[in-house]
Design goal:
Number of strands: 5
Structural class: alpha+beta
Largest sheet: 5 strands, antiparallel
Bound molecules: calcium ion
Shape: rod-shaped
Distance between the termini: 116 Å
Number of domains: 1
């Protein structure tokens, strides 16, 4: 009789231990599940945050690109007021004698901005702007031309392609392209 009672007590203890073990496994499972849910929501909120800030970067970058492009367009077509005797505009693009990109007011023609770069300060810290200027032909305005080492007579076209790029956080946020023509090209293009 005593043996039977001991056996019943032992079985009862086993069942309790088993229940405690089951409860512990369930608890661990719930904790892991909750952790996974929290991580998923965190990632979701981070993605939403990044996505929602991008339009602001693009808007600011576009404004900065437009501002610089308007400045460039306000300059004359070329350092030379007219083509030189060999029928060409400037045979090199970039700043001319006495000009420096460090003093923007010294830049008086469009291609002075070729290779221009700057890192902006507050309130636009983190943004940078760069410019490339190249000759293009009237029938291929997106195909930039490489100036040959020895420029033939009448080689330089009457068009320059100006590209302004604004980067922020290692990414390109805005890019504007415009074609600037000489006074002569304006007469013939339209
Ligand atoms: Ca110049």
């Amino acid at each position: 009789m005593i043996m039977i009672r001991n056996t019943i007590v032992f079985q009862d203890q086993n069942r309790r231990c088993l229940q405690r073990g089951t409860s512990l496994i369930e608890l661990i499972f719930v904790v892991v599940l909750l952790a996974a849910m929290v991580l998923s929501f965190t990632k979701l909120f981070m993605d939403v945050s990044v996505t929602s800030t991008n339009p602001q970067f693009r808007l600011t970058a576009t404004m900065l690109a437009q501002e610089l492009m308007e400045e460039i367009k306000s300059r004359r077509f070329d350092e030379n007021e007219a083509k030189t005797a060999d029928g060409n505009w400037s045979k090199t693009l970039g700043t001319d004698n006495g000009e420096t990109t460090g003093s923007r007011s010294s830049l008086d023609d469009v291609d002075d901005y070729q290779g221009f770069t700057e890192n902006l300060s507050a309130p636009f810290s983190g943004f940078s702007r760069s410019v490339s200027v190249a000759y293009v032909n009237q029938d291929a305005l997106n195909t930039t031309l490489t100036i040959p080492n020895s420029v033939p007579n009448n080689w330089t076209p009457d068009y320059k392609r100006v590209q302004v790029t604004v980067n922020q956080g290692g990414s390109q946020r805005a890019q504007l392209v415009t074609i600037v023509g000489s006074a002569k090209s304006r007469d013939t293009l339209y």
